[in-house]
Amino acid sequence: MRTVSKDTVTQSFLDYISEDSDERLKFVMEKLAHHLHDFVRETNLTHDEWRKGLELLFAAGEISTPERNEFVLFSDVLGLSSLVDMVNSSEDGTPSSVLGPFHVLGAPDVPVGGDLIKDNVGDKIVVGGRVLTTDGKPIKGAHLEIWQTADNGLYSGQDEQQEEYNFRARMTTDADGRYLFSTVRPAPYTVPDDGPVGELLRATGRHPWRPSHLHFIVTAEGQKTLVTEVFPSDDPYLDEDAVFGVREKLIMEYEKRESTDGLPDDLAIKGELDGTFYVVDFDFVLSAA
Ligand code: BEZ
Ligand code: FE
Hints:
This protein is 25% helix and 20% strand. By secondary structure, the chain is α/β, with parallel strands linked by helices. The protein has 2 domains: 9-68, no CATH class; 81-286, Protocatechuate 3,4-Dioxygenase, subunit A. The strands form 3 sheets. Strands 1, 2, 5, 11, 12 and 13 form a 6-stranded mixed β-sheet that branches. Strands 4-3-8-9-10 form a 5-stranded mixed β-sheet, with no helix packed on it. It is elongated, with a radius of gyration of 23 Å. Bound molecules: benzoic acid and fe (iii) ion (FE). Fe (iii) ion binds next to loops.
């Protein structure tokens, strides 16, 4: 099209896409062009606003490193990462939630009942449950990758005081599909806000806090991999997670206890637990692949 107007530019763009292109790519590009062009038409976007947006993207590139991807963070605080999770989450299994940037490979294998507290301080919690199919059958040999912050709200890797794999573990479920470990209560923390994402949050009057959570990746043969996180029901940021990761089904109760009566015998620190601690019971349901 030689003469392009604000009303015809979208079609003009679509006409440029080759008929031989991949069907899905064509579909996604068509939707993208419609929504992006409508966004400009509906907002009457000014040159200054458009330039500011591009400056934010440029700054995101400048501050990004292999360990810190500011584009992912933009996606997180805009609700995009969570939306992609939600449209791809299976209805019948445990909902998925954001992976975040703090997962690392190579965490040590910890047996069912193992301890992650070691020398760390904080409220002690005992977390356990089962990995199940959607029919309620226990899955033996499912793998759980577990990671969380220390009591100070920092992950190992962010905090020189913590050993490399502090509060990180890989666990394999037993014959009854059980997992179990002792740890400390993780703390709420802020997403990195010293870059362009922080600038956007401040400009829109938003805070960078996430409710405390335990991260899990659960895998099992024949089942869909589940990337998720679980949140305590009393966290002050539950209704205002900066990255929109909370789902009703991912909220767990921390049950206060003073006695170890009834706790499983394979809990390694059972004999050493004294004073107040908390018990968390949470099952993961994996849908079929
Ligand atoms: C996290 O939960 O680790 C996380 C998720 C999104 C952005 C920053 C951190
Ligand atoms: Fe996290």
